[in-house]
Amino acid sequence: MVTDPACIVADRCLQLLGGYGYMKEYSFAHLFADTRVLRILAGANEIMKELVARSP
């Protein structure tokens, strides 16, 4: 799924930015929150993998 690599990249960028990554003044804080929400909105990745595996 695409959400896993997006979250990995966001986590690495957060490590790079440090505390600035959490400040709402910076656009990355919004991007980080959006990538975290994508995991929930897109469906649990394990469930999606099972659905793909079951499809003919």
Automatic annotation (TrEMBL):
Q: InterPro entries from the xrefs?
A: AcylCo_DH-like_C (IPR036250), AcylCo_DH/oxidase_C (IPR009075), Mito_Isobutyryl-CoADH (IPR052547)
* Top-level taxonomic group: Bacteria
Q: Report a single Gene Ontology molecular function.
A: oxidoreductase activity, acting on the CH-CH group of donors
One Pfam family this chain carries?
A: Acyl-CoA_dh_1
Annotated signal sequence range: none
Q: Which UniProt keywords apply?
A: Flavoprotein
Q: Where is the Acyl-CoA dehydrogenase/oxidase C-terminal domain?
A: 3-55
By what name is this protein known?
Answer: Acyl-CoA dehydrogenase/oxidase C-terminal domain-containing protein
Question: What is the native source organism of this protein?
Answer: Myxococcus xanthus (strain DK1622)
Ranked from the top, the taxonomy reads:
Bacteria, Pseudomonadati, Myxococcota, Myxococcia, Myxococcales
